[in-house]
Amino acid sequence: MSARHELFYHTEATLRLVDHELSEHHAVHAVHAAPDVPETRDAPRAAVAPLSGLAALPLILERALAEIEAVLASLRDNRTALETATVEKLQRTSDKLREVTTVTEVAATDILDALERAQRHVDELDACDESGDRGHARATRDLLREELFAMMGCLQFQDITTQQLAYASSVLTDMENRLLAIARLFDPAATLARTASAAPDPRTYAPDATALHAEERQALADEIFAR
Amino acid sequence: MKFLVVDDSSTMRRIVVNSLQRIGFADTVEAGDGREALEKFDASVKFVITDWNMPNMTGTELAKALREREDGRHIPILMVTARSVREDIIAAMEAGVNNYIVKPFTPQILKEKIDALLSVAAAG
Which of A70, A160, A210, B71 is deepest in the core (most CB within 10 A)? Predict the structure, then answer.
């Protein structure tokens, strides 16, 4: 149990204790204030009279307790909702963001490697011009085209990371709305300092989009379509 | 043979179109989502390559819409998508997609899938 959760329970327990004490006090006061109570009892009516102003206090406190309990219950509900609905999503989002970094770096490295190879091919073409070796020049041009084509393929990471970032954005927007709902428990007029951002259209991204393990994932698709 | 390439990412459209040109299919038409694809689809289109996640109309919705049309009932539809969960792949198949490529893809896989679908279409 977290410290905050424990605090909620302690607070509620304390309030229940106070409620219990107040109820007892209220009961005793009611007995003393009843018209058929003889004045010969321990508390004479004269002594009870000043308490009549306080008679409403237990009721007020009871009502306050009920309200506090409702707020606590609502907080607990929201806490549970936050935990179950968003903690897992946040962890997944964190993983996705780490993957964005990795995928971007891998793509940049692949492109740089291909550029270096392309530069060497250009150098070879220069050498072919000098030597007049047309056969080697043709083969080198084909290799150069392959490298340029591979570089273009590497740029697919842009589409995948866009989808991963859209997913992360949707989780953050969801969190923003949930936190605002909690803030409104305490202040119904609570608003964001800025307009709440619209979540990305869920139709435009795949929540599980990844650039990793493409071969295994392709094998699964092939297996299903081969049936 | 004209290919209809559907993807909301202009980067991906360029990559697919470039790959198609490289394997000998230079006649292409592009669309940014399923709705635009339906507007551009006509009898001259002989092959559809579509992404799944797009605004307005997704790739699976496009596949279903094409299968309901007389001129789209038998057209080869190849999906190229980042979605790769088993349930998604099955859903794409049920929507009418003929084959499936997971992003990121290699030009070799694209060529293999296109060749396979064209030979099935030719046989049918």
Answer: A160
DSSP string for A152-177 = HHHTTHHHHHHHHHHHHHHHHHHHHH
Q: Could you tell me if B100 and B50 are in contact, meaning their C-beta atoms sit under 8 angstroms apart?
A: no
Closest CA to A12 of A58, A73, A63: A73
**ipTM value:** 0.91
**Chain A: closest CA distance from residue B83 (Å):** 6
E strand residue ranges, chain A: none
Digit-coded pLDDT (tens) for B9-21 = 999 999 999 999 9
Task: Specify whether the CB–CB gap between B83 and A217 falls below 8 A.
Answer: no
At A186-205, the pLDDT tens digits run 777 777 666 666 788 899 99
Q: Is B54 on the interface with A (CB under 8 A)?
A: yes
Residue A199: phi and psi, rounded to 5, are -70, 150
Q: Sheet with B2-6: list strands edge to edge.
A: B28-31, B2-6, B45-50, B77-81, B99-102
Closest chain B residue to A152, measured at CA: B15
Sign of the alpha-carbon torsion through A29, A35, A40, A41 = negative
Contacts of A78 (CB under 8 A, 6+ apart): A178, A181, A182, A185
Rounded to 10°, the helix B107-123/B10-22 angle is 70
Contact by Cβ (8 Å): B69, B37? no
